[in-house]
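Notes from the 1:1 (GR / supervisor)

We went over the backlog. Supervisor wanted to see one worked example end to end before approving the batch request, so GR pasted a single chain during the call. The sequence is below; no edits were made to it. Supervisor asked that the structure be written out right there so they could see what the output format looks like.
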Amino acid sequence: MDVVVERRIAWGVLALLLVYAIIVVIIPYSQNNLQSVDTPGHLVSAQYVRDVLWPSPIGWDHRFFGGHPLNQFYGPLLSWIVALLGKFIELSVAFKLVMAVAVLATPLSIYYCARSASMRPLAAALASALIFGLMAARHNSWLGSDYFCVFFLGFVGNGIANPLLFLYIGAVYRDIPRDRYALPALLLALTSLAHIYVGMSALVFTACYFFAAGHRWATVKHVALAGALLGFWALPLVAKLRYTDSSIGAVIYLTIGQLGLFVLVATAVSIYYLTKKRRTTAYPLIMYFAALLALFAAGMMFRLQVQLYRFYLPALMIGTLLCVYALGHLKDKRYLSIAGVLALLLLAASYGEINYKGGVPHTWTNFSHVDGLVLTRAISRPWHLDMLLADKNEIVRGLYAESSLNARFYWMFEDQMKQVRPPSNLKKKLNFFGINWMLTEYPGMIPYKERINATPSLGNNYSLYRIANSSRAQVLDYVPTTVSGPWQKEALAWFDSSRMGTVVVHSQEPLPVCVGTTNETAVVEEVSSTRIRVRVSGSKDVPVFLKFSYFPNWHVYVNGKPTRIYWVLPSFMLVYGHGDIELRYEPLPVDIIGNVLSVIGVVWLAVAALMKIKLIRPRKVRP
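Structure output shown during the call:
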C-alpha cells in the first residue's frame, strides 16, 4: 500500500474514532451531575484550591478527617488545572472540559506513541481504536484507567494521566536518541502529577528503555530534570510518608485467569520479537509489559497492600499495542484486518455499557454551621452529601483517606454503627474524636438522638442528629501517658482498649508534670487552612488536647512564643500553655528545598527547550 494512501486511511480511522468519542462519551458526559462516587470529592478539591490555596495546589484542608494535607500525597494536576479554568468559567464546566480534552487526546496520544515506536500508520491507528475500545468496554473489576472507573467511580486522575503516559512513551522514542530530553522530562513530570501510580508506571518504562535501548546519558538527564520539576511535590511527599496510611485504599488482585492471559500474551509476543534477526524498537515495550506482569505476580504472591490494579489497564494497553505491532510486521498485511475487526466489535459492544450522564441528580438543603464534626451514615450513601456539608462544616470522611492517619479510625465508627449492639464505649469514642453530629436517613442507626433538621429528597428524609457534645479543644485534668512503639500497632491497640477516651502521647520523652482543673476552659476561636486559634483561660500552663490532625507543618505559639506540639494517638495534638494559643501551618525546610529545586528545574527546562529549537547554541570549545 502506498504510504500516502495508508496515512490518509489512518487519519480517517482516527477521525472516526474522535467522532465516536464525542457522540458516545463527551456529549452524554456534558450532562453529568458530577455526583457519582469519588467525582464530587475531586470537584470540591478543585474548588478549595481555587478559593483558598491558590496559586498553590497543596495545602491544609481542615474540612475532612479532622484536617489533612490536600494534594500532598495525591497528584495535584487535575485540581490545579480545574481551579485555574474555574477562575474564568463555572467550575463544573471547567471540570468537564478538562475530562473531555483528555478523552479526545487519548486515541491521538496512542497513535503518537505507536508511530514513535516505528509502527506503520494504519497499524498505529488500528491499535488506537482497539485500545480505546478496551477503555470504553465494561470490565468485571476495577481497573483504575478504564472509563467505567474514570466516569462512574470517579477515578478522574487516571483519565487525564492515560494520554500523558502515551505521549511520554512516544516522546522518549522520538527525542532521547537525539539527545533531546526537555519534552520527555516535562511529560514525565506531568504524568506523575496527574496520578502517582501512572507516574510510577512511566518510571517503569523509563527503566526498561534504559536497559533495552541504550541512550543512557540522555535517559538519565531527562529523569533528573523531571525530578527537579517535581521537587515541590515529590520531595515533601517522600519526607512525610510516615504521616499517610496507604493501607486504607482498595486492594484488588488479579484472578488466575487474568494473570494467565497476560502470561500467554507476553510469551507469544516475546517469542515473536526475540526470534527476529534484527533489533526492534519494540524491545523496551516488551520489557515494560513483562515488568508490569511481574508487579502483578508480586502483588498476588505477597499480598502487597498497594493498589496494583492501577497497573492492570496500562499493561493491557501495552500488550494490545505489541500484538498489533506484530501483526503489522507480517508479510501479509491483511492480518491487520484482525485488529480492525476486533476494534469494531469492542467499540460496538461498549456502546451504552457505561452511563456517562451519571445518576439522578440530588438536591439538598444547605445545613448551617454546627459545632464539631459531622458523620454521614446513609443507607444509599451518596458521597456528595459530605461534599455539600463541607461547604460550612467539618466532616468525618472525605475522598483522600490515605492522607490522614485518623481516617481508618473514622471509618471504624461507621462499621460499629452497623452492629446490632454498638460497643458500650461508642459515645466515649465519638466525644474523643470530636464527632457531635450524624446525618442519616434512618434514625435507628443511632441509639441516642435529638432531631435538628430534615432535608427530604427522592423520598429519603435525611436528618441531622446530635450524638455527642464535645469541644475541639479540651483542658486535661490528668497527666497523659506515653508510648513509643510503632504508631500503627500502638494506635490500633489503644482504640479497642480501656485507655480509649484518654489522651496517649506518642513520645519517647516524659511529659511536663502539670494538669488543669475544672476552672480552665479552652475555646476554639478560628480554624482555617493556615491557622488554628484557641483561647485558654487561667493563669498557669495546662495540657490542652486539640482534636485536629497532627502534621509536621503545624507550629504552635503560646502568647507569641514558640513551643512544642506533642503527637496524640491516633493523630491529634497536645500543647501546654494558657492564654492565646496559635497554631500556624508553616513550610518545613524540605518544602522550601523542594520549591527551590522546582525553580531550578523550570530554568533548566527553559534552557533545554531553547537549545532544542536552537535559540541557544552550546559553546564549542576549541582544542
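Supervisor's comment: The radius of gyration is 27 Å.
Batch request approved.
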